């Protein structure tokens, strides 16, 4: 078994909103990281190819790596895509559909704070270019604390939103905040999603669970040394993850209580 880094990015910008700064990489650092991929002779593959290998498909090339981007910031269109295109690198973009909007119009609403996000024409253009478009819920809610009807709206509605715009099926998902549990995974399968990315700061592999693929989050303070370690398969554990801990379940209970009674717990 060889490790497969799935890198999770968010915004790539010199001027992000304050709330997004911790998860934003500058264009200069992003280019440096792409150069490190080249120098390390990494084979950047589509997410779907990893999922196929997990399910018994063709073996992966040596030193495989996957690039993913969450939320749907507009800088993916203007900054990221030209850099990927110049290097002929594939990527998956997970869109929170409530944050996207028609050209000249308004978004239908999300829990993400204000930021410059993609419009639907840009999303369709990226799809036509060859970027895989995946789902990231409608409102960027914490899915594992939602009652059943709201959960179904987030995972089924997101799929309808994307497929209505793109004109074809979509099948890859990313959990907002990385939060998921057995009920969330069942809801995704029932809605027709066949793989989903989490973010436990771990390597994926061909033995990973396709419904909770491990990723490594690239942050504003991810150093070149840490990034280089990831490319060598070092510095993080490898999924599948161990069973949920008592601490994880307690944290979910607290978040569920806060969601139901906002303002009661601080």
Key descriptive features of the protein:
single chain, 266 residues, alpha/beta, TIM Barrel, six-stranded parallel β-sheet, three-stranded mixed β-sheet, 13 strands, NODB_dom, signal, hydrolase activity
Topology summary:
Blueprint: E1 3-4, E2 6-9, E3 11-12, E4 24-25, H1 27-39, E5 43-44, H2 47-54, E6 64-71, H3 75-87, E7 92-95, H4 120-129, E8 132-135, H5 148-166, E9 172-174, H6 182-191, E10 195-197, E11 202-205, E12 216-217, H7 224-231, E13 237-238, H8 246-260
Parallel strand pairs: 2-6, 2-12, 3-4, 5-6, 6-7, 7-8, 9-10, 11-13
Antiparallel strand pairs: 1-11
Helix pairs in contact: 5-6
State Rg: 18 Å
Biggest beta sheet summary: 6 strands, parallel
Looking at the overall shape, the CATH architecture is: Alpha-Beta Barrel
> What is the class in the CATH system?
Alpha Beta
What name does the CATH topology carry? TIM Barrel
The tally of strands reads: 13
What count of domains describes the coordinates?
1
Report the β-strand fraction as a percent range. Answer: 15-25%
State the helicity in percent bands.
25-40%
CATH superfamily: Glycoside hydrolase/deacetylase
| Overall pLDDT | 92
Quick one: overall form? globular
Subcellular location: Secreted
Pfam family, one: Polysacc_deac_1
Protein name: Polysaccharide deacetylase family protein
GO molecular function: hydrolase activity
């Amino acid at each position: 078994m060889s490790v497969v880094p799935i890198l999770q990015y968010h915004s790539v910008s010199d001027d992000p909103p304050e709330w997004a700064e911790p998860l934003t990489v500058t264009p200069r650092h992003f280019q440096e990281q792409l150069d490190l991929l080249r120098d390390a002779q990494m084979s950047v593959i589509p997410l779907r190819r990893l999922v196929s290998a997990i399910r018994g498909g063709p073996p992966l090339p040596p030193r495989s790596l996957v690039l993913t981007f969450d939320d749907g910031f507009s800088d993916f269109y203007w900054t990221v895509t030209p850099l990927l295109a110049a290097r002929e690198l594939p990527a998956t973009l997970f869109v929170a559909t409530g944050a996207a909007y028609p050209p000249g119009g308004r978004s239908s609403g999300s829990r993400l704070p204000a930021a410059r996000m993609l419009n639907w024409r840009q999303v369709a253009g990226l799809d036509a270019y060859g970027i895989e478009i995946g789902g990231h819920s409608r409102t960027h809610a914490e899915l594992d604390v939602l009652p059943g009807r709201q959960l179904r709206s987030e995972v089924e509605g997101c799929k309808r939103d994307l497929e209505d715009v793109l004109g074809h099926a979509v099948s890859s998902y990313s959990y907002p905040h990385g939060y998921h549990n057995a009920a969330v995974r069942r809801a995704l399968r029932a809605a027709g999603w066949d793989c989903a990315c989490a973010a436990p700061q771990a390597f994926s592999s061909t033995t990973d669970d396709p419904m909770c693929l491990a990723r490594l989050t690239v942050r504003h303070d991810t150093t070149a040394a840490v990034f280089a370690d990831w490319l060598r398969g070092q510095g993080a554990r490898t999924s599948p993850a161990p069973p949920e801990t008592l601490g994880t379940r307690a944290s979910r209970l607290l978040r569920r209580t806060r969601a139901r009674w906002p303002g009661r717990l601080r």
